[in-house]
Amino acid sequence: MNPLSAPLGLARALNGSSRRLMLCRSAGLGNRSPVRVAAARMSTQGETATVLEPPQQTWEAAHANNPAFAVARELPPPKSHKREIGIFVVVAAVTWGLGSVIAFNYQRMTSTPVTAALFTARHNEGVREAFGGQLSFTSAFPWISGDISHLKGVVDVEFDVVGSKEVRGHLVLKSRRISSNQNGEWKTIEFY
Q1: How far apart, in Å, do the first and last CA atoms of the chain sit?
Q2: Mind giving me the DSSP string for 95-156?
Q3: pLDDT (tens digit, 9 = 90+) per residue, 53-101?
Q4: In this structure, what are the phi and psi dihedrals at residue 8, rounded to the nearest 5 degrees?
Q5: Whose CA, among 57, 147, 167, 183, lies 20 to 30 Å from 159?
């Protein structure tokens, strides 16, 4: 049975002795046209519709001068994407900057001088009496201000701590390398 055939009931439902329908269906790839238009003339006298198909078009016939493929009209002006690009650049710069700040702060938080200062403060009897036994950072991601430069031989950090007695404090560590050797001796200038 022809896939474009229609039963008699459909023709009667159209309320007329004859109607003209335009039916479109996609064609596959290859030399067949992308869309074929079939005109069907339906009559209430017969049981099925007669299908008339235009000749097959090939992909090679798809050019601007062929009216079956082209519509003669002006192209719209190209859209400007300046606003979208500007928003992307701002969001990327803020994300990159914020990520850098978080990464450098995490590097300072996990550095040897900061963990050694926290370890020394935890085991100091005066600090244990004032703050309690469990001295730690005030949050999971504390802000460590200052500079740690092993290359220059400078450690200058400050951060907040809290003990098991819920007493908050501020720990300061300032240290300098006193020898010119990279692995030389360090001198603590301030630690309170």
Answers
A1: 95
A2: HHHHHHHHHHHHHHHTSHHHHHHHHHHHT-HHHHHHH-S--EESSSS---EEEEETTTTEEE
A3: 555 667 777 776 777 666 777 888 888 999 999 999 999 999 999 999 9
A4: -60, -35
A5: 183
d(CA 53, CA 51): 6
Q: How far is CA 43 from the centre of its chain?
A: 58
Interacting residues of 165 by C-beta distance below 8 A, sequence separation 6+:
130, 131, 132
**Cα of 140 vs its chain's centroid, Å:** 26
Cβ atoms of 66 and 54 closer than 8 Å: no
d(CA 10, CA 21): 12
Q: Checking DSSP bridges between strand 18-26 and strand 35-43, what pairing results, if any?
A: antiparallel
Instruction: Supply the pTM of this predicted model.
Output: 0.56
Other Cβ atoms closer than 10 A to 188:
13
Pairwise pLDDT comparison (132 vs 180), residue with the higher score? 132
The first and second tokens of residue 107, run together, are 């590097």
Burial zone of 132 (CB within 10 Å; 0-12 exposed, 13-18 middle, 19+ buried): middle
Residue 4: name the closest of 25, 19, 35, 33 by CA: 25
What per-residue confidence (pLDDT) applies to 147?
A: 93
* Number of CB atoms found within 10 A of residue 114's CB: 22
Q: Give the span between the Cα atoms of 182 and 192, in whole angstroms.
A: 26
